[in-house]
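Board notes (copied after class):
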Amino acid sequence: MAEGGGGLMVSVSGIRGRVGEALTPEVVARYAAAFGAWSIAKGTSRRIVVGRDSRVSGAMFHRIVVGTLQLVGADVIDIGLTTTPGCQLAVEHHHAAGGLMLSASHNPIEWNALKCIGSSGLFLEAREGLAMRALVDTGIPYARWQDIGTVIIDDAVAARHIESVLAIPYVDVEAIRARKFKVALDCVRGAGASIMPALLERLGCTVVGINMEPDGRFPREPEPLAENLGELETLVKASGADIGFAVDPDVDRLALVSDAGQAIGEEYTMPLAAKLVLRHRTGPVVTNLSSSLLIDDVARDAGVTAVRSPVGEVNVAVRMRELGAPIGGEGNGGVILPEVHLGRDAPIGAALVLQLLVEEGKPLSAIVDVLPRYVIVKDKLPRPNTGLDAVYGALRSAFGDATVDTQDGLRLSWPDRWVHIRPSGTEPIVRVIAEGPSEAAARDLVRRSREPLDALGV
């Protein structure tokens, strides 16, 4: 559950808000100091990694974070303009006490955020976040002049990240290179340009790109949803590309456009990656409660189970670690491959999809055509001041034949459809998401699920 104070969203995803409104220099400094002091107090290291995506406000907040961390005694590893998975990998590489990534991910241009990464390279779990944020209220121990931390620049993050992707045992680099794929790439003027072209070129691809300037001035809605990828669809068709890749501003999500010039939807990325990985590894697949049934079908075909976790990358990653899952992620285009690290990673997703094209020997459009078809419908409403327990109770009564999951809000499911109602962790809203074998079936679930919310005047 997210907290909202004056529009500031505080959740398992970190803290985020609109720049100059909820997210001010004072707020950023306060939370950065709390994170640094809390991380150092654990005693494993004094190093804290700091990175940012390309958002217009990023460089300003970056300077504030670096100085603030020095003042709590942290030795800062400054990795500059980077990706969220790159920041996570840098924490592991430097054996750091933690990392702060300045990125509001898919949120609109006026937002920014602090993403808090623990010493394991995973985002903070809920209990860790509570302990860290307690320092905001109880007081932060600042260093005296002689204990101020240092700053070291690390500009090799992308290079190491690329090498880790190329080292995945079942990514046959030479076989991919031999195919000489033409790839259309849309980096939405985010941080993707810092790694995606170089990775694809190492894989022998010819890259035709749009929105490659990393200045944070997003030319469209930055979330890589199908409806936002019209320009990339046009580029794929005009250039004769074999595939189109779109990443979000911090490059942890990957969406695909087929060779036919059709954005197939971000829900396909993780199931397609899993289809490839499960040929080479065995074990359960973990995804969140709001992800498509496609992953259940892919898991079933491979003879393994699909396990659901609460929404939030760290929740999926922790469950994967517990179960020893070889692949997991989220239906928003986030692929997690623990053989590299337990974080969503678009470069990894791109390499796995290209390997799938090699092994299948047919285009993406043909691969997708034989997969089951589902339609997801998403709705959102303002969050009520009261809790949602009454809504959940009414919904359980209304859908008495459903399988119930209460890990994260309420998910009601049947063999070929589901609906998930939960408060957002990144916006002050309630999300209502449904999937069914047709748009009509999914919309009907959303409509019926909204009735108790409407009754409360939401």
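Comment from the instructor: The first helix runs from residue 25 to 41. The chain has three domains: 3-155, 160-369, 375-455.
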